[in-house]
Amino acid sequence: MIHKFKIGQTVQLTRDNLRTANQNRFRILALRPFDGDDPLYLVKSDSERCQRIVPQSAIKTDAA
């Protein structure tokens, strides 16, 4: 598997069983190493102070 999203791209997080994803848009800040077969990304929302590392499986393209 390869990184599907690019640095600077705006995305949204999907909902999963562990957490409710914030409805904000997130910007891809960096590509991170893989976690098994799932590429990781460093993302940040303008409305949040923290950055998040999320797997590709938890990201979807921004509908806006």
Quick summary:
This protein has 64 residues and is mostly beta strands. 0% of the residues lie in helices and 45% in strands.
- Write down the oligomeric state: single chain
Strand content: over 45%
Q: Please work out how many helical segments DSSP would assign.
A: 0
Helix-strand makeup class: mainly beta
- For the largest beta sheet, what order do the strands appear in spatially? 4-3-2-1-5
Rg on CA atoms, Å: 11 Å
C-alpha geometry:
globular
User: For the residues shown, what is the average pLDDT?
Assistant: 85
Whole-number total of structural domains: 1
Which residues sit in consecutive blocks of at least 5 with pLDDT less than 50? none
Largest sheet: 5 strands, antiparallel
In whole angstroms, how far apart are the ends?
Answer: 26 Å
Report the strand count: 5
Helix content: under 10%
The run of helices and strands is: EEEEE
